[in-house]
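Name: Phosphoenolpyruvate-protein phosphotransferase
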Amino acid sequence: AAAHAENRWHGTGTTADGHAVKLLANVGSATDAAKALEAGAQGSGLFRTEFCFLDATTEPSEAQQRESYAAVLRPFAGKPVVVRTLDAGADKPLPFLDISAEPNPALGVRGLRVAFDRPELLDRQLAAIVAAAGDTGAEVSVMAPMVATPAEAAWFAERARAAGADRVGVMVETPAAALCAEQLLAEVDFASIGTNDLAQYTCAADRMTGALAALNDPWQPALLRLIALLGEASGTLGKPVGVCGEAAADPLLAGVLVGLGVSSLSMTSAALPAVGAALAEHSLADWQRAAQQAVTAPGAAQARDRARAALDG
Ligand code: PEP
Ligand code: MG
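Structure predicted for Phosphoenolpyruvate-protein phosphotransferase:
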C-alpha cells in the first residue's frame, strides 16, 4: 500500500485539498544535492555547512569556502536553499575551531554562540555564502543554529544583511526561542525548527543517550506545543516557519506539523516520497484536527495514536 501511495507523489507537496507545503531535502555535500533533486526535492531547507570542513585543520579561506558552498548550491540553480552557518562546538568538534572541552557540551558554546567572541569568522562565512549564491543562481537564504533569544536573532540578522544576504532566518532549537516565537520571528524573514535539538532541550534528555530515546521522541506533546507557538507566530506575522529536524521525515508527524502551521518540511531525501504521499491523503482541516489531538495527549505514544485515530475516524 505504501509503495502504491508513493507512486501518487509527483514532486510538489500538497494536502488533499490543495494546501501547498514545500518539500525540501537536508544536504551537506554535492552528492547529497544530486540525490535530493533525483528524489524530487523542491530545494533544500538545510545545508549543513560544517560538513564541508570536517577535515580542515585551519580555517578555510573565504575563496575556498565560496568554492565548497558553490559545489553544493550549483545543482539547485533556480531553487531555494537554506544555508546554515557553522554549527560546531564541543558537541560537534571541528579541528580548526579549537573549542575547549566543556562539562556539558550540549549546553555549551555551540552553534551561533561560537561566533559571539569571533564575529569575523561568521562574517567571512557569510561573505563566502553570498558570493557562492551569486556564482550558482541558487535562491539562497542563510540561517543561524542554536539561537536562544530575539536579541541574538537581531545580532545575526544585522550581520547577514550587512553581508548582502537576501533572506535571513534562524533555527528554533531551544525552548527559549520557541517561547518568544513572535519577537524572534519579527527580527528575521523566516524560522526553521530543528526538532532534533529542540526535543533534547525540551525534555532535558541528551540526544546522544540511547536510553533516553523515548524522551527525544518528536511526538512528545510538549515539543508539539512549542512548534504550535511558532505556527501561530507565523500566521500572525505572515512569515514562513519550517521544520528541518528528523520529525519532518515521519509521514504521519509531517502532516501534524503542517496542521500546527508549518509551511515547509526539510528531511533526508529518502523520506520525501512517503511524506509527500501521506500529506496528500488528508485535508488541511484533517491534519489540524489530528494536531489538536496530539498536543493534548499525555505522552508521545498516545499523541501518535490519537493523531492516527483522528484521521481514521
Ligand atoms: C536539529 O537540531 O533538528 C537540526 C536539524 O540540526 P542538527 O541535527 O544538525 O543538530
Ligand atoms: Mg541542531
